[in-house]
Amino acid sequence: MRQLDVSFYDLGIDPALVHALAQQGITEPFEVQREAIPDAMLGHDICCRAPTGSGKTLAFGLPMVSRTEVAKIELPTSLILTPTRELAEQITKVIKPLAEAFELEVISVYGGVPYKVQRRALSRGVDIVVACPGRLIDLLEHDALSLEHTQTVVIDEADRMADMGFMEPVCKILDQCAKDRQTILFSATLDDEVGDLVERYQNNPVTIEVGPKEVSMDSMNHFFWLMKSDMKSNITAEAIRKCGRTIVFCRTRLGVERVGSELEREGVGVATLHGGMDQRQRNRAMRDFVGGECLALIATDVAARGIDVEGINCVVHYDPAENGKSYKHRSGRTARAGATGTVINIVQHPQKKLCSRIQREAGIKIAFRPPDFKELPDYDVKHVPAPRKKSGSGGGRRGRGNRPYNRKYGNQNRNYRGRNSGGGGGRNRGRSGAGKPAAKKDGGARHDRNSHGGGKKGSKAGRKGRGGRSKYSRYKRN
Q: Class of the 3-209 domain?
């Protein structure tokens, strides 16, 4: 029998799991799954080098679900460690349908979510925990769970764990797991810190290597476009419209927010992702991007680590990468599974020296030249515009008001966003009227041209954005 004809059933996977996979349209194992599953099913430790997007989650997930024993309350029997919230959610999404076939409970544990939600789930009993190291350490220190019964541990994206400074927490977690556990490690590279982890915590591991040792730069079209700072947003917007689904990388959180706003003004639908967002906001951003509600994801390096989204046509380095390794990580979001991709670097003249060094470290040599959209490949792009923001003089629940007065009286200027302020629907200020008097409770504003109308319980004049006089109103002359 040829290797390519091997099925999941041939690899020793339970028929119930094979059926669950078939319902999702998954019938043939990938290379990493063919290589890793048999040894994992036998309980061997595994050290596997494989790139993101190669099918690793099922390679460790299927054997883990098959071998997981039902846990006692707050004593999970299987653990998956991963560097980012988004990757934890992706893994959980893959594992849960499989675990349901064996009536196993799965929970994802990471920061940005209230502790009580995760503690409540653990107190009901969880068999498989998918966790980021930081939050898991916090829960362990507060006695929300114990790992003494954890018989199977998977460390996913071990090289990124090292890059993000998680090696010490990972070691602390492994020290608390069962001594005779099975330890499975997956990483895109097996360099020094990952090698130390293998040596300290794995017992005679089976070593598996799949795919190239490094992200291949040859499957991507690289462009280094020289331009002035005030051209960057316009050029990036046009590149997104030309290429379609795109990830735009910025150095800082503030940069992500600023670039997101600028691209929306250019008429491009975008989602933003950075470490300063709460989990609900991050989930919504990923849902909009994956679901096609927007064309581009604007992200920092750390926030984008571990994101595995199919069909990324283009990566834009809005700010230069830190070094060649970071350049490869960023650029590797495109050109997956045999496809080609486009990588555009936005370069200002003072950044040429840095970008030349990045090229040397990444093993490429590309000339710097002005933007030329004719160089870009042709993609079949369905344009997704930026959502239109409502404007005008209608009343609204969310206006901008003075901090001491906005909640009580609904007064407004452009300095503060108040829940109960009215007028100037959406983010735009309403234009005041003739200064019709308003009662104290109306929160009327003076009839300055740039003032807003009254609060949500205001007078008719206030609700229509026609500012009324009141000793409680404040305004700002422009």
A: alpha beta
